[in-house]
Amino acid sequence: MTTTTHEHDGTGSPRHPRSFRDRPLLFAAVAVYARRGWATFPLAVNAKVPTKGSHGLLDATTDKEVLQHMFDNIGLNIAIRTGEISRLVVVDIDCHEGGPNGYHALAELKSKGMVLPKGTRGYGAGVVSTASGGLHIYYLLPEAVKLKTSVSVIAPGIDIKAEGGSVVAAPSMTKAGYYRWRQLPDKLLPAPAWLIERCKAQPVEPRPEYRCMKPTDEIPTTVLATIQSRLEQIASAPKGQRNYTLNQHAFYLTRFIGKGFGEADLRGWLLNAAQQAEIGRLEAERTIDSALRRKTPGAGMRRTI
Questions:
Q1: 139 and 189 in contact (C-beta within 8 Å)?
Q2: How many CB atoms sit inside 10 A of residue 181's CB?
Q3: From 260's CA, which of 1, 62, 80, 205 has a CA 20 to 30 Å away?
Q4: Cα–Cα dist 105/134, whole Å
Q5: Continuous H helices in 121-220
Q6: What is the pLDDT of residues 206-257, one digit of tens each?
Q7: 263-276 and 281-293 helices cross at what angle (nearest 10)?
Q8: Tens digit of each residue's pLDDT (9 = 90 or more) over 19-56
Q9: How many Å separate Cα 256 from the centre of its chain?
């Protein structure tokens, strides 16, 4: 008789004895996160960026068969899409060298009565240690509440991951180290009322409409769908990946210039998407200009500006 041993995968849960034995990320996606209703998508090996050729958080799902396919490769990292799709809001406490210290800001908030409760393993907040020494604190997003992903709105060094955002999840690994669960409760605490109100109190710019300025019959349907998809990916790119995502998709979209729209149209759409992703205007313009200068051969032969 053989004895089955259960190893742990960084999520605090035992590994499956067979099919998940060498695939802890697949186990986390299917048996831990999907079971909780948290939509996930793969990230590149040892990185915080989506896998090449994917659609990033737009691929996030709880479908176990799809996840089996997406996480079939050993070594991929994993991200959880936040906001309404997973009913999650995550408080991201940063402490990067040379930047604001989120722990100091957290202590200041606490002194003012704005506490982030941890609860217990039975009923509490999810708490993850990040590779850079920060924390991700997970809360349940109350029904009918929508919060926007924001950077340092709550306090310097504290970001909010909600609608349009995502977080790198345990047991991902980067060159800086591992993401590990400190606490993964059976039932998640709802986000504290003060946090929701403070987020809601911030002015939210209207989301740009990624519709062409010209009649849609001037742009082939497949091209239009590609443009809209790529712009959405730029607009929803997570922190740390925003400028990279803008550069990647801006360059790709230059190949369609002349197919019902011109360079000026594309520049405007890209800038709107970049601003939605909270990329500074000057930085966004430099990135877009660079992509347009490198545009693919033949682009613009039938330009209609």
A1: yes
A2: 23
A3: 205
A4: 13
A5: 193-200
A6: 444 434 334 345 677 778 778 878 888 888 887 778 888 898 899 889 888 8
A7: 140
A8: 565 788 899 999 999 999 999 999 988 888 888 777 78
A9: 27
